[in-house]
């Protein structure tokens, strides 16, 4: 349900690297860490700001997102290497120079459609460091929301005590490619936990849209090119820009109906949204 993110193309070729650490116990035996459920962060999107915590603990983290604004929103988590700042990242955006290698796109949730009372939920791997939370969806005037102040910093710290996170169990794996979606098993009615990975050479996203009665994926494509009038469907979940070897987990509860998977990320070569290159897929539930 978005237009092109062309003004921010320079940040879209960034790689993601995730790391883990272990902690030993005594000289003779290794400590067995406790197992805990992944943490949860509540994040609210509005026109044009994020409301949420300033800090979090490293580890797999569910980000539960609501939308109180009148526009579509998402959040891209950008991990910044030590010594770099949000201001530096913002100054680099829109530049024609090579993207900063110190900024890493790790995804994040797609907010529900404006007016929806639901929340969307996506799990991301947080490692210690500083993150910028940004929304690059363009407003009606063409300016990306981040240029209107939709940015927030998140500081992630190591856990005080070594704790193993309980694994997130997925019902299917979705691989994003240049320019397609591939699922190991079809999505089904009810709760789905989708592991999303990017196997393409460019950053990609997946927006899951439930179509309104009588609407088709072609209407989504037309709306994304010219977002005027009522949208043809509602966003029910997804994962924003992912680059490199990182996984997001998207939790969606699918009722019967027609749906579409869409990627609106801009192409590295021509700046057109990937949906214009055929990165969309219709599917039906029940």
Write the layout of secondary structure elements.
Elements: E1 34-36, E2 39-46, E3 49-51, E4 55-57, E5 59-67, E6 76-80, H1 86-92, E7 103-105, E8 120-126, E9 129-134, E10 151-157, E11 163-165, E12 172-177, E13 180-183, E14 190-198, E15 204-211, H2 217-225, E16 233-242, E17 247-254, E18 257-262, E19 280-285
Parallel strand pairs: 1-11, 2-5, 4-10, 12-14
Antiparallel strand pairs: 2-3, 5-8, 6-7, 6-9, 8-17, 9-10, 12-13, 14-17, 15-16, 15-18, 18-19
Shape: globular
Helix proportion: under 10%
Strand content: 35-45%
The rounded Rg comes to 19 Å
Arrangement of strands in the largest sheet: 3-2-5-8-17-14-12-13
N- and C-termini, Cα separation: 24 Å
SSE order: EEEEEEHEEEEEEEEEHEEEE
Q: Please give the count of helices.
A: 2
Rounded mean pLDDT score: 87
Oligomer: single chain
Structural class: mainly beta
Spans with pLDDT under 50 lasting ≥5 residues?
2-30
Give the tally of β-strands. Answer: 19
Question: Main beta sheet: strand number and arrangement?
Answer: 8 strands, mixed
Give structural notes.
The protein contains 2 helices and 19 strands. The N terminus is likely disordered. It has an 8-stranded mixed β-sheet with strand order 3-2-5-8-17-14-12-13, with no helix packed on it. Strands 4-10-9-6-7 form a 5-stranded mixed β-sheet, with no helix packed on it. With 286 residues, the chain is mostly beta strands.
């Amino acid at each position: 349900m978005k237009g092109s993110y062309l003004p921010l193309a320079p940040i879209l070729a960034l790689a993601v690297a995730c790391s883990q650490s272990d902690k030993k116990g005594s000289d003779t035996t290794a400590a067995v860490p406790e197992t805990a459920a992944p943490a949860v962060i509540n994040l609210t999107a509005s026109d044009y700001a994020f409301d949420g915590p300033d800090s979090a603990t490293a580890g797999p983290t569910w980000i539960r997102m609501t939308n109180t604004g009148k526009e579509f929103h998402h959040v891209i988590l950008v991990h910044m290497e030590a010594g770099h700042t949000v201001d530096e990242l913002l100054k680099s955006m829109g530049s024609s120079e090579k993207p900063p290698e110190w900024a890493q796109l790790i995804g994040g949730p797609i907010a529900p459609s404006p007016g929806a009372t639901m929340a969307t939920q996506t799990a991301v791997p947080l490692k210690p460091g500083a993150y910028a939370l940004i929304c690059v969806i363009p407003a009606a005037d063409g300016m990306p929301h981040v240029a209107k102040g939709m940015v927030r910093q998140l500081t992630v710290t190591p856990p005080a005590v070594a704790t193993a996170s309980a694994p997130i169990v997925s019902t299917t794996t979705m691989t994003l490619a240049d320019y397609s979606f591939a699922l190991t098993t079809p999505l089904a009615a009810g709760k789905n936990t989708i592991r999303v990975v990017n196997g393409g050479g460019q950053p990609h996203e997946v927006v899951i849209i439930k179509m309104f009665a009588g609407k088709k994926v072609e209407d989504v494509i037309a709306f994304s090119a010219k977002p005027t009038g009522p949208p043809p469907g509602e966003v029910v979940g997804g994962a924003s820009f992912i680059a490199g070897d990182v996984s997001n987990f998207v939790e969606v509860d699918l009722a019967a109906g027609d749906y579409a998977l869409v990627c609106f990320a801009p192409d590295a070569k021509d700046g057109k949204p990937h949906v214009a290159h055929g990165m969309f897929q219709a599917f039906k539930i029940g």
